[in-house]
Amino acid sequence: MAAEWLWLTVWSAAHAADCEESTAPAQLQAHADRAHTAFGALDIDQFLEASDTLRAELPCLDSLVPPQLAAAIHRVEGLRAFGERSVDTVRAFAAARTADPLFAFDASVVPPGSPVLEDYLAMDLDAADLEEQPPPAEAALFVDGRATPLRPTAWPAIVQLQSSDGTLLWTTYARHTDTLPTYEVVPPPPPPAEVALAAGPLRDGPPSPPPPPRRRPVPLLVGAGATALAGIAMYGAAARTRAVYDDPLTSDDRLPGLHARTNGLVVASSLAGLTAVGLGTAVVITW
User: Fold this and answer.
1) Cβ neighbours of residue 189 under 8 Å, at least 6 residues apart?
2) pTM of the model
């Protein structure tokens, strides 16, 4: 069985290059139906001949396979693997159930109670993993008749590549361990440096450093506050000196000195107030 699978993989990779003529999906359906009938009739020679023909003509397809046909092909592979006691039986049947979940074997092909039915339902389809294939350039991947880049990793799949103009480029029956034929993929996006160059030339020289953080005029604020407090203090002292000057009990010989001191304190208080106002204005402007 292993040798036959290897033969199939090599044949599929060669795809249409060795095909003398193309094959329509309806022809493959006829081969699959003939294989099912021969299996039910226990006609082993007819079954092997039909399944061999199915394998040989699959890579020569001229169009996409519908999911129901993909499922039929997987069932034929499962029935053949069952007859050869291959461990790939349940994998092929799982692929068939995934492609056509509503299918049920006719009793004339697989009678009730047959161990074939046990293998057919053996694998848990919900436990399967899907592997995303690289996106093809100007083409699309089809897996078991459906447009998708996701390929199952636990069972085989019929993978096809169709160009953007509708031409079928190749078809392969790939086991879960097989690699696909090579194809042109979408190039990866350029790195950030190339994106910047494509957008336009860079400015001369290194980028300008960010401006330093702005320093708050704390000394001006302290100076304005201190000057204002000094002016208030001097104004209070002038008021107290004037009160002594106006006191009738103050002797006349002290009056000239009190007058001069009061005037000096008032002048100094005014100057301090003006200074505080100027410093406060500077704080507001530079904050």
Assistant:
1) 195
2) 0.62
